[in-house]
Amino acid sequence: MSIVKNKFKESIRLAFNSDKYIVITFSDGVVCRYSPEEYTDYKYDRKFFIVIRYNQWICCHNLNDIKHIDIATLPDLESRYE
Predict the structure, then answer these.
(1) What pLDDT score does 49 carry?
(2) Which residues pair with 48 in a beta bridge?
(3) Cβ–Cβ < 8 Å for 50, 60
(4) Which residue segment(s) compose the domain that 68 sits in?
(5) β-strand 48-53 against 66-72: which pairing, if any?
(6) If exposure means fewest CB atoms within 10 Å of the residue's CB, which of 5, 40, 42, 70 is most exposed?
(7) Is 40 contained in some domain?
(8) Per the domain annotation, does 3 fall within a domain?
(9) Which residues of the chain have pLDDT under 70?
(10) What's the Rg (C-alpha) of the chain?
(11) Which contacts (CB < 8 Å, 24+ apart) does range 2-6 have?
């Protein structure tokens, strides 16, 4: 799943899926991965993609620096990144 910037809504809350991995690819090619054990929720607004663990923000990535965001199960991710 790719997340595209939404210019019409102020913020969007995304549902938590405990078996999903988050893979963020930045514009410079750096890849950041979060396993289901590392986060409990995530969301984004117009400027940032936020990863949350137990109601605390553990990271806040600027959407201008992000090329692609994948949120999927491990088998799906393995087939995409082979």
Answers:
(1) 94
(2) 62
(3) yes
(4) 14-76
(5) unpaired
(6) 5
(7) yes
(8) no
(9) 1-18, 81-82
(10) 12
(11) 2/68, 2/69, 2/70, 3/44, 3/49, 3/69, 3/71, 5/46, 5/63, 6/46
Task: Give how many domains the chain has, as a whole number.
Answer: 1
Q: Is residue 72 part of a domain?
A: yes
Predicted local distance difference test score (pLDDT) of residue 77 = 74
Check residue 50 and give its pLDDT.
94
Q: Which two tokens stand for residue 36?
A: 């289901």
Measured distance CA(50)–CA(1) in Å, rounded: 16
Query: Is 49 in contact with 42 (CB distance < 8 Å)?
Result: yes
- For residue 48, the domain's CATH number is 2.30.30
- Of 68, 62, 1, the C-alpha closest to 29 is 68
Query: Which pair of structure tokens corresponds to residue 31?
Result: 């890849």
Across the chain, where does the E strand assignment appear?
A: 11-13, 21-26, 31-34, 41-45, 48-53, 56-62, 66-72
Question: Strand, coil or helix: what is 42?
Answer: strand
Residue 60: per-residue pLDDT: 94
